[in-house]
Amino acid sequence: MSWNRQAVSQDEHFPVAVIASDRSLTFSTAKDFDRAWELGIFYLKVPEHLDLESARQFGGELLALDSPYRSIQHYGALEGFIALKNNQQTKVALRRQHWGQHYPAEISEFGRQLDRIGMAILREVFRQSGIPEPLWDDASGGYSSGEGTAFLNFVHYDTRNPDLGLHPHTDYGFVTILDATTPGLQVEVNGRFEDVPVLPGHFVINFGEALHFITAHSERAVGAVVHRVLSQQSADPIRQSIVYFANPDLDGRLWQYDAKGEVKGSSSVQDFFAILEKNLTEYR
Ligand SMILES: [Fe+2]
């Protein structure tokens, strides 16, 4: 398995957004905006105030086999030092409520800055959806105003394991913010996987299943993009990434509204995630 290393112009690939000074998500053309919403993936220019280098450095230190983070405690199945079965991905994963306890102060602050980016993206999705603003908080389990759940994960790929980097899947939450150092990410577009080249100075943003669910009956629904990471070889530079997930509260509810503000459906987050998990298991 290999990927196309040729440079691809941005026009042919994925649209690029910025967070404007009024904190809104902005694309240079309406066409780019439409394409981002249609694909469920786009690049976002890394805001200047963000100390990405320190976060990358912190992530790099986790590669050391004697890193204390390798013995970090587990909180359930989703948090702690995790090596996924049948995938090369290995990570330290923590929810926002545990950042302060385990991550250095500047890394917790970095996570809070990503919170603000996640909120800006989610609020733009809501604006486009026509769902009345007073309902955004309910619909997103509090995330749109700074609550909900967020994960800040530091990832690398263990090439001693011959599997795919990460098997095809959709993300479960609202929005994923990804910083990756090397190629390997692919997304499914019209039934085939396409490379998502590393664009220096930019995050990759993708939409998840919970966002699809809460916008499904609105004026502008968004979809969750299927993606995977190709198998990383030991001769490649070690693929490291920082991944932030904007999620609903795991013990909360998701609500579907139309643009008139009428409830069209709802699900507990636990039931919703359990169904996704079952489908994923069957898919494999
Ligand atoms: Fe993912």
What do you see in this structure?
27% of the residues lie in helices and 28% in strands. With 284 residues, the chain is an alpha+beta fold. The strands form 3 sheets. Strands 2-1-3-11-8-13-6-5-4 form a 9-stranded mixed sheet. Strands 7-12-9-10 form a 4-stranded antiparallel sheet, with no helix packed on it. The protein is globular. The structure holds fe (ii) ion (FE2).
What's the total helix number?
7
Distance between the termini: 18 Å
SSE succession:
EEHEHEEHHHEEEEEEHEEEEH
Shape: globular
Q: Name the structural class.
A: alpha+beta
**Average pLDDT reading:** 90
Bound small molecules, by name, code or SMILES, are:
fe (ii) ion
Largest sheet: 9 strands, mixed
The level of helicity is 25-40%
Report strand order across the widest sheet.
2-1-3-11-8-13-6-5-4
Radius of gyration: 18 Å
- Strand coverage percent: 25-35%
What is the number of strand segments?
15
Pick out the low-confidence regions: 1-11
Question: Keyphrases for this structure?
Answer:
single chain; alpha+beta; nine-stranded mixed sheet; four-stranded antiparallel sheet; 15 strands; 27% helix; disordered N terminus; binds fe (ii) ion
